[in-house]
Amino acid sequence: MTVQDLRDVLRERAEGPSPANPARHEQVGAHIRRTRRRRRVAGGAAAAVAVLLGVWLVPGAADQPQKATVASSVAKLPERFTAPDGTEYRRIAATAVKAAGGRKAVITVPLSGKPLDVAGVCEGVDNRPPRVSTGARTWPPMGFRGCSKVMQLLPLPVPENAEEATVTFDTATSGSACVQAGAGGPCEPVKAKRGDWSLAVYEWTPPAEPVEPAPLKDLPRRLDGWKLADSKTGLWPQDTTARFEIVGTGRKLAFDQVCGGDLAGRVLVRTSTGLTGSPQSSTCPEWKSGPFPMAMTEFPAVPKGKRMVITVRISVIGETTNRPIRWSFGLYSK
Amino acid sequence: MIARSDRLLRTGYLLTHDWEIAEDLLQESLAKAWFAWPRVDEPESYVRRVMVTTYTSWWRRKWRRELPSGNLPDTPCTDALPDDELWHAVGRLPARQRAVIVLRFYEDLPVAEVARLLGCGTGTVKSQTAKALAKLRVDETIVKEMQR
User: Which regions are flagged for Basic and acidic residues bias (chain A) (predicted)?
Assistant: First the structure.
């Protein structure tokens, strides 16, 4: 046996999943208070506890406005949970951006090589949802949708070969807009409304085997005056492209899509025809119940007799190991 | 900074072989470090040092859950210890030897730094390393190499 064997055993044991302890901050604080009582040391303990534990235990707690909010955000975002496809999530850091506090929160998380997601829940009224960045290039920019008490999960791409990542949640740069009350009236800037965001970073462990999503519902044969002309289905990651070949009839064409699976919301669909310029991108909605989530991409009418090929490319933001995604694309004509 | 806390927890696990005790050890060490905070230049190194000394003092007093045995059985089934056996063998080392092994081969600290953390001389670290590796049946030529 060699020293390298010993190193390997130590690393393997130490770097297995460690039990997360979100209460460590409070527990060490209690420990210090007990010791202080015993030692009868006076003065300034609360502030000092916050400083030390902020530095050591709470990611991003050096940001003063965030300190008091971490405990409440922890309560709203569970320490562990299991996704419907069986994927285990473990929270590795938490923070918050409160309506009355700072506009940004920054936390540093260790990188174990497992995929990371960010989670957010929001209370109140908000039109400035946090954008998320780690320094890794992402397109489109990552950001939460509107304010919801239902947990939103986003993939978190991280810089390659890094041992830790600094995650910034920023509500200060969400863009701007104005509303025109009437024709010719002034365009009034939309007032910023800020809710209370609880935010966390989760590490997830891919399922041991691929977990295929349930089959998708058939696309509607008729849809708001459009008629289904052709359709294709597939399963990511095996099937990454679809191709529709058509001969023009002089009628307009349109493309629509639905996806299924826990990571369906991370799909980007790019369609190109060779007739129009750059490809068009769209996300891929899920359709579990209710009316069809229509989000058509329309193409100009193809001249009668002219052949056209529509190429569809599928990509997914973030990791999808053993978490396949079903897709179904339809080509409609008027 | 939670990365450092997590790393220290893992070091604690290698020392104690038990995540709960490792958590206790980490919390006790952080609490102790708090009282010395104004004098601390290198926080991580300081807390690691407190962890190691706290661990060895616990072990001396009461935390003898895994009793060390002087030697492994004379007639092992195989020349090389399987991973599980090696892990258990590390757990059977006396506290100070176990600390030396963890600091040198997990934390990758040089002999002088381990000596500083344990509050002993470099000669003691070398001899403790040699004894521990011998008990773990690590190749003796490599044991000698590690004396540097």
Answer: 1-15
> What's the complex ipTM?
0.79
Q: Quote the CA–CA distance of A270 and A315 in Å, as a whole number.
A: 8
CATH code assigned to B74-148: 1.10.10.10
* Rounded-to-integer distance, Cα A60 and Cα A133, Å: 14
A59-205: CATH topology is Jelly Rolls (2.60.120)
Interface residues of B toward A, Cβ cutoff 8 Å, are 1-7, 9-11, 13-14, 19, 23, 26-28, 30-31, 33-35, 37, 43, 47, 79-81, 83, 86-87, 90, 101-102, 105-106, 133, 136-139, 142, 146
The enclosing H or E element of A69 equals none
pLDDT tens across A226-264, in order?
999 999 999 999 999 999 998 888 888 889 999 999 999
**Measured between CB atoms, does A108 come within 8 Å of chain B?**
yes
Contact B31 A35 (CB under 8 A): yes
Please tell me which residue of chain B has the smallest CA distance to A41. B35
Nearest-CA distance from B129 to chain A in Å? Answer: 11
Per DSSP bridges, beta strands A88-97 and A131-133 are unpaired
**E runs forming strands in chain A:** 80-82, 88-97, 104-110, 116-123, 131-133, 142-143, 152-155, 164-170, 178-180, 187-189, 196-205, 222-223, 226-236, 241-247, 253-260, 267-272, 280-283, 297-299, 307-316, 325-333
- Band of residue A167 on the pLDDT scale cut at 50, 70, 90: very high
Average pLDDT along chain B, 148 residues, taken 10 residues at a time? 68 87 86 80 83 80 43 39 77 89 89 88 90 79 50
Q: How high is the pLDDT of residue A62?
A: 30
Task: Tell me the C-alpha distance between A286 and A207, whole Å.
Answer: 22
Q: Which part of chain A has CATH 2.60.120.1300?
A: 222-333
pLDDT tens digits, residue range A185-215?
777 777 778 889 999 999 999 999 999 999 9
